[in-house]
Amino acid sequence: MELAISFIQSKIYEVRGIKVMLDFDLAGMYGTETGNLKRQVRRNMDRFPDDFMFELTREEFNDLRSQFGNSSWGGTRYLPYVFTVHGVVMLPNVLQSKKAVETSILIVRAFNAMREVLLNPPAHVFEVKELQNEVLQLKQYIEDVFTDQNDINEDTRMQLEILSTVLAELQSKTKWLDNPGKPHLN
């Protein structure tokens, strides 16, 4: 079975701020049992310092499992080992199989492809950022225009009230001038 880089990338997780792969995923890709992989690692612990491989805590494992809702992770009796890219490179040396070497090369390429995207995001990522900035600027402009519009409306309303009051006074004065002898009620 030829492994696709996208499949491998789907098996790379982040734990403790580090990109890692789980022992049972690697065992499946390397064509061996998880127990055998762990046995070989335990026999060669000097090749796997903490920055190459570490065991998950129960909390980390439960968090990963709930994050991805993967029931196939099931009820393992032992907490899984996770391997950084360096540990992945070391594994074929202890598993001693041609398939492990070939798979390790693909896994390293998957890690590198992910790193490349993070370091050099595609141009469209920048275009999206620019569009987001333009939308924010447009939103601010519209809010400013409506604020000004509301201010103008308030000013206009006040001016109309003053005009209305003055017109009412003028009307009452003209009525009185037309008939000065009669009292007028407003």
Protein described:
The protein is an alpha+beta fold. The protein has two domains: 5-120, Mlu1-box Binding Protein, DNA-binding Domain (Roll), CATH 3.10.260; 122-186. It is built from seven helices and four strands. The protein has helices spanning 5-9, 23-30, 34-43, 58-68, 85-95, 98-119, 123-178, and strands at residues 12-15, 18-22, 53-55, 81-83. It has a four-stranded antiparallel sheet with strand order 1-2-4-3. The longest helix is centred in the C-terminal third of the chain and has 56 residues, at 123-178. The protein is rod-shaped. The protein starts with a helix and ends in an 8-residue tail after the last helix. The mean pLDDT is 78.
Q: From N to C, what is the helix and strand string?
A: HEEHHEHEHHH
Task: Report the major sheet.
Answer: 4 strands, antiparallel
* Straight-line distance between termini: 98 Å
CATH architecture of the largest domain: Roll
**CA-based gyration radius:** 37 Å
As a percent range, the share of helical residues equals 55-70%
Please name the CATH topology of the largest domain: Mlu1-box Binding Protein, DNA-binding Domain
